[in-house]
Each structure stands twice: as structure tokens, then as C-alpha cells.
Amino acid sequence: MPAAGGNGLPLAKRLYKSRTLGLTLGFVCVLAGMYPLDPPGWVWAWMLINAFAWPHLAYQLSRRAENSLRAERRHLLVDSFCGGFWVGAMHFNPLPSVTTLSMMTMNNVAIGGFRFMLMGWVAQALGVGAAVLLFAPAYIAVTTPAQLYACLPILMLYPLALGWICYRQAITLARHKRELLALSRTDSLSGLLNHGAWKDHLEIEFARCRGGQQGAAIALIDIDHFKIINDTYGHVTGDIVLRQLSKILRQNLRATDLAGRYGGDEFCVILPDMPLGHATEVMDALRDRFSALGYAQDPTLRASLSIGLAPYQASHGDATSWLNDADQALYEAKSGGRNRVRSVEAGWVRSL
After folding, report:
1. 78 Cβ partners below 8 Å, 6+ apart?
2. Sign of the dihedral through C-alpha 310, 313, 317, 319
3. 3-state secondary structure at position 135
4. Cβ atoms within 10 A of the Cβ of 214, count?
5. Residue (of 287, 314, 317) closest to 220 by Cα position
6. What residues does 271 pair with on adjacent strands?
7. What is the mean pLDDT of residues 12-30?
8. CA–CA gap between residue 5 and residue 12 (Å, rounded)
9. CA neighbor of 1 nearest in space, from 143, 144, 131, 107
10. At 94, is the secondary structure helix, strand, or coil?
11. Alpha-helical segments (H) within the chain
12. In what order do the strands lie in the sheet with 305-311?
């Protein structure tokens, strides 16, 4: 049961299930240890309350607490105190006592690590002290067969349940970590790779090309006169244009191609294992499709693309020089009248 984030309510829900199971199984263990001692009626009543009422009360208290995580940590210390109390009440009967204390300690370690384990031990010691004050101090050195069998369910089932809960939580945390990593590398507006993530992939692709005979091309894409679109039609419409371009990129590129938003109205694409001629055809077709788009917000709106292409060349000293070639090609596309594709010629040519 790893610690939950936020206000701890997810943790309270998990602990409710494990506490209900653990105290039910623990009741059988403590019952076997207490029965031969013939305790007074209030002890039996307290045992029933602790086993069958306390899990539900603890959960309701956590739900209503301002900070559920703190509330659950307090409840775990109450569990530890009660566990220590029953150990003292059973006169330290070896197997039931060790079983009770170890299950409580396992909970505390899972929730708060070494420090919380020590806090749990203090609570257990206080519980033992309370029992010694209430009952005549004694020590039962022998565990009967009946008591041994009564301890088996909790020894077998509770660690299994705890392990399953921890496993499920680990899977959930791993999924959340992957989702957060994806979000940190994704541009929120376009849904494509952000600047940093795309540059990381460019470095990887550059190393791949340099290490083998494969080639690749990169494209820098600029929406023509995007500032005028924003000023004329508004930023909301401008965002729609950006999303439309990202949609066109996703629909018209291969699964192996890597598209990103480089910044502002500029997009970028890595085209692995694609000759320059083929890359030019792909980008030109993409430019045509984007230029043909209509916008319901204003039927008069039309947008076009300027695209600069650069293939990998052995003369590139690093990924930045490769990117500079694409940037130079983009500059030529814009200075040559916009709404066109320009490329840097290279010696690498390969048919698909």
C-alpha cells in the first residue's frame, strides 16, 4: 500500500479494504490466543469493535477529514496501538503475538518507510503497556496447535493481499509516469512533439544516419503570414489553423515520421529513410492539402505553407548544422514567394 498523493483519499480507500481483511483475519488469530484466558466481557466487546467496526469508522473519518492522508497515518498508529494491546492481553503468546506485530509493522513500512515503522513500534509498545496495566503481567511460552492453525489464514492471505495491492499501485504509478512523460514532451495546442522532444529525436536520428548507410530528411514548415491571420481573424482562429496543420501532418505522414511544433507557427518533421525526391513529393502534397482547407469560422480565410527540406549529408558536423540547412531552405521558400517547397541538394540518393 504505497502512499498516495494529494489528500490521501485513494490511500484511505485501499487501506479500508486491507484493514477490513487484516482485522477480520487477525480477529481469528487473537481469538485463539485470548479464549484460553477467559477474559471479561468488555474484552470480547472491544475485540469485536476493533475487528468489525473500526475499519468502517476509520474510513468514514478519513473521508470527512480535511487531510485524509494524515488521518490515515493516525489510524495506522491506532492499529499499531491495538495490535500491541492484544499482544499484552494474550500474555505474549509467541506465534499470535509475532503474527500480530509483524502484520502491523508490514503496513507501517509500506506506508511510511523506516521512520513510520519506528512510530508504529512506539504505538505498539504503548499498547503493550496499557495491556500490562489492565491485566496481570504474565508470559505464555507455548503456542497450542489450535492457535497455530488460527494464525495460518492471516500469515498466508494478508501478505498476498498486501502484495497484490502494492503491485496494482505500482502499475498505476508506472502508467501515470508514462502519461506525465508524454505530456512533458507534447505540445498542448497541436498534440505533436514539443520543441525539446523533437530536438532530442533529431539528435537520435542524426546519430543513426551517421552510424550507418541510412539516410533521412528533415522539414521545417512555416504558415505563411500567420501574424496577419491572427491580427485579422483573431487568435482563436489562429489556434484553429495551427490545429488543422497538426491534423494534416498526422494524417499524411508515416507512422515512423516524427512531427513536432518547433515554436509559434513553425512546425518540423523528421522523415527517416526517405530520399529527398520522395520527401519533396510528400511535403508538396501536404502543402496542397493544407492550402485547400476551408474554415467555417470565416469562408474567406485561406492559409498556405512554406517548407524547407534538407537531407542528411555526411558533411554535417552535428544535428544543428543539418537543421540549419533546413532553415536555409525554408528561408529560400519564403523569399521566393511563399506557398512552396524548397530543398537543399545532397549527394545521398536512394530509391524506395
Report:
1. 54, 58, 123
2. positive
3. coil
4. 14
5. 287
6. 217
7. 93
8. 11
9. 107
10. helix
11. 9-34, 41-48, 54-64, 68-89, 94-134, 145-184, 195-211, 226-233, 235-252, 276-291, 319-335
12. 258-263, 266-272, 216-223, 305-311, 341-343
The model's confidence at residue 265, banded by pLDDT at 50, 70 and 90, is very high
Q: What is the rounded distance in angstroms from the CA atom of residue 80 to the CA atom of residue 100?
A: 9
Backbone angles phi, psi at 255, to 5 degrees: -65, -25
Residue 181, burial from CB neighbour count under 10 angstroms (0-12, 13-18, 19+): exposed
List the domain boundaries for the chain.
9-184, 195-343
Beta strand 258-263 with 341-343: parallel, antiparallel or unpaired? unpaired
Q: Of residues 35 and 350, which shows the higher confidence score?
A: 35
Q: Strand 266-272 vs strand 341-343: parallel, antiparallel, or unpaired? A: unpaired
Rounded CA-CA distance 44/331 in Å is 86
Query: What is the C-alpha to C-alpha distance for residues 150 and 316, in angstroms, rounded to an integer?
Result: 74
Question: What fold is seen in the domain 195-343?
Answer: Alpha-Beta Plaits (3.30.70)
Residue type, 278: H
Average pLDDT over residues 83-95: 97
The string of pLDDT tens digits covering residues 294-303 is: 988 788 899 9
Set of cell numbers at residue 275: 530520399
- Reply yes or no on whether the pLDDT at 347 is more than 90: no
pLDDT band at 8 (very low <50, low <70, confident <90, very high): low
Q: Which residue has the cell 496501538?
A: 81
What's the grid cell of residue 261? 511544433
- pLDDT band (50, 70, 90) for residue 7: low
Report the C-alpha gap between 57 and 51 in whole angstroms: 11
Model confidence at 2: pLDDT above 60: no
Distance CA 290, CA 122 (A): 70
- The model carries a pTM of 0.61
Angle between helical axes of 9-34 and 68-89 (0-180°, round to 10): 10
Q: What is the model's pLDDT at position 345? A: 64
> At residue 177, what is the residue type?
K
Can you tell me the distance from the alpha carbon of 94 to that of 144, in angstroms, rounded to the nearest whole number? 10
